[in-house]
Design goal:
The protein is α+β, with helices and mostly antiparallel strands. The chain is 28% helix and 26% strand. The chain has three domains: 11-126 and 184-278, Aldehyde Oxidoreductase, domain 3; 391-458 and 622-649, Aldehyde oxidase/xanthine dehydrogenase, molybdopterin binding domain (Aldehyde Oxidoreductase, domain 4); 467-615, 2-Layer Sandwich (Aldehyde Oxidoreductase, domain 4). The protein has 18 helices and 27 strands. Strand 15 and strand 16 (299-309) form a beta hairpin.
Length: 649
């Protein structure tokens, strides 16, 4: 640790030897293509597949009616939210442009795609719910019969006496913030290859998702197979994800059902046009805020009302619930408040599915920091002074108003350091002089905090599943194999986790191999890789598991060397008694003893030199928070709108 090493992933990736989902090829493999809806909202009046079935190379055409008899409706885990009943292929209604309508299976991808154009569909258009505002209109039709009013979930929580805080205020400032809808765009699109063995009843699904464990569970629920019968395998490398692939689309379930029906492997790779239409979208949140303040800039109370346009279908896992939990917890930030209320409303519309996106809870940062700027403007105070008046010191009893401990958090020091580095006071003088010359200079600051991993109670407060396990195994040659629950997409897990394990075990970095992405060997982790959690949680799991294995190894060595384990050290693969360094022995000697002569091991010591431990965040020293303050100075051309960044710290 702490030394520069070359990424072990790079040789295969930089030389074109990476393995992505489209590189997966199996014997007798068929190819899938989807017919997609050109309408945002319509009933399917008639669906004629006869011409497509007669097309060259076509093996099967599967409709919603067909699939309804093959697998269960989509299993949606929404944790307190309403869950509409819907199928991987719609039975009677399409709900957004790009919604899947039918599945064609053929001998080649081109044959499958050509045949989709031969399917004749009659639609009866329905009013499109183009926004949350429209969907909430009582006159709008329900998108799902079991979701009245198109509200998927609506609830709230209050911390402190919010009425008293607002009654004490000198003034109340109301603001509205909106984020536009965006589409994640990784270089590699989504895809899946499913292979069902009729002889054994086993299903193997190759995929490129961030959450392989959750996909395995969902396939089990949908297809009526036990999890032991399902193997989910990552295609080794994932060409970017950015949160999009933490969810998995209905297409994967369609492909799995088709493979079981036909008894042959079926492959689907999304093209870029499909990706733009249907892979998923993010953001489009509206936050209505009311803040109670004193005239001296002291913040008293904050009311937040959030409306999220989550599109037509809820994904699995359900990222909106996790996102809102994080937003609720973190939005008050490292500032003192007497009271805080948070109300959320998740609305279904005729748009593509809402998915996680990189920095999923950062809405809370820019909203809160813009709020502080607006309060300063309303009170005619300096925005830095408003922040100074309210920022916490990180003392032992400091907490987020939403509950989490901020003990040890350094937001106050970060703010002070940023103000110093940007030369805030001097810049204000320069700014005033420049204005007299007709030049427009500006300065802005923003402070954020992020759980990394946060205090232990973060898990309960955010609803996130933040415990993680890892497996470590010592091979007969003294090399270490680490198996992680992670699903990396370019973040150097193979390098980072090898460094962690090597440092903890006391062996060379080159003697560690990191494996991932196969449910037969990888520990279960519902959330997979995402949310900036891997460096803490995956590394923590590797540390506690390696530590357990090392204890076992040193117990065996202590018996051989006739000393106690506490008197031994393991450095560079050599086990050495501190009092008798001449008796040093290589680690592989212990590994070979356990393999070849297990009867010679000390009583009670398992010959399997492996360990799997679970890291929960217990025992972490420090605050568990990361954060920072950004400061930027700019010059604006008020005629053209051009912005020139002068300095950024």
């Amino acid at each position: 640790m702490g030394e520069r090493v070359k990424r072990v992933e790079d040789p295969r990736i930089l030389t074109g030897r990476g393995q992505y989902i489209d590189d997966v090829r199996l014997p007798r493999m068929l190819h899938a293509a989807f017919l997609r809806s050109p309408l945002a909202h319509a009933t399917i009046e008639d669906l004629d597949t006869s011409a497509a079935l007669d097309a060259p190379g076509v093996v099967a055409v599967i409709t919603g009616e067909d699939l309804r008899d093959m697998i269960q409706p989509m299993p949606v885990a929404i944790g307190g939210a309403a869950a509409p009943v819907f199928h991987p292929l719609p039975v009677d209604r399409v709900r957004y442009v790009g919604d899947v309508v039918a599945l064609v299976i053929a001998e080649s991808r081109h044959q499958a795609e050509d045949a989709t154009e031969l399917i004749d569909v009659s639609y009866d258009p329905l009013p499109a719910l183009a926004s949350a505002e429209v969907a909430l209109d009582p006159a709008s039709p329900p998108l799902f019969d079991d979701i009245p009013g198109n509200v998927v979930t609506e609830d709230g929580e209050t911390f402190g006496d919010i009425d008293a805080a607002f009654a004490e205020a000198d003034r109340v400032i109301e603001l509205t913030f909106r984020q536009d809808r965006v589409a994640p765009m990784p270089m590699e699109t989504r895809g899946a290859v499913a292979d069902f063995n009729r002889g054994t009843g086993d299903l193997v699904v190759y995929c490129n998702v961030q959450t392989p464990s959750a996909l395995r569970l969902a396939l089990s629920l949908s297809m009526g197979l036990s999890m032991e019968r399902i193997r989910v395998v990552l295609a080794r490398d994932i060409g970017g994800a950015f949160g999009l692939k933490s969810s998995f689309g209905r297409e994967t379930f369609c492909v799995a059902a088709a493979a079981r029906k036909l008894g042959r492997p079926v492959k689907w790779t999304e093209d870029r046009y499909e990706h733009l239409l249907s892979s998923g979208q993010a953001r489009e949140e509206q936050l209505d805020l009311a803040v109670a303040v004193k005239n001296d800039g002291t913040m008293l109370g904050l009311k937040v009302d959030v409306t999220i346009d989550h599109g037509a279908y809820p994904p699995l896992p359900f990222p909106v619930g996790v996102l809102i939990g994080l937003m609720q917890t973190l939005l008050p930030g490292p500032y003192r408040w007497q009271a805080y209320s948070f109300h959320r409303r998740i609305v279904a519309t005729n748009k593509a599915t809402y998915v996680s996106y990189r920095g999923p809870w950062e809405a809370e940062t820019w909203v809160r920091e813009r709020l502080f700027d607006e309060v300063a403007r309303e009170l005619q105070m300096d925005p830095v002074e408003v922040r100074r008046r309210n920022v916490v010191a990180g003392d032992a009893d400091d907490r987020l108003i939403s509950g989490l401990s901020l003990a040890g958090a350094s937001a106050r020091e970060q703010l002070a350091r940023a103000v110093e580095l940007i030369g805030y006071e001097d810049f204000r003088k320069v700014q005033e002089s420049a204005r007299a010359e007709g030049r427009y200079l500006g300065i802005g600051l923003a402070t954020f905090i992020e759980p990394a991993p946060g205090p232990v109670e973060t898990r309960a407060a955010t609803g996130a599943f933040k415990a993680e396990a890892a497996k470590v195994r010592l091979e007969s040659d003294g090399r270490l194999v680490v198996t992680t629950a992670q699903a990396p997409q370019g973040q150097s897990h193979e390098t980072t986790l090898a460094q962690v394990a090597a440092d903890e075990m006391g062996i060379p970095f080159e003697h560690v191999r990191v494996e991932y992405g196969d449910s037969l060997t990888a520990p279960f982790k519902f959330t997979g890789t995402g949310g900036s959690m891997s460096s803490t949680w995956a590394s923590g799991a590797v540390i506690v598991s390696t530590r357990k294995l090392k204890e076992k190894v040193l117990d065996i060595a202590a018996a051989q060397l006739e000393t106690s384990a506490g008197e031994l050290e393991l450095v560079d693969g050599m086990i050495t008694p501190r009092a008798a360094p001449e008796k040093a022995m290589p680690l592989e000697a212990i590994a070979m003893q356990a393999l070849m002569m297990p009867d010679t091991l000390p009583p009670g010591v398992d010959a399997r030199l492996e360990a799997q431990e679970r890291f929960t965040g217990e025992g972490i020293t420090g605050s568990g928070w990361t954060g920072g303050t950004h400061a930027c100075t700019v010059e604006v051309d008020i005629e053209t709108g051009g912005v020139k960044i002068l300095r950024y710290v």
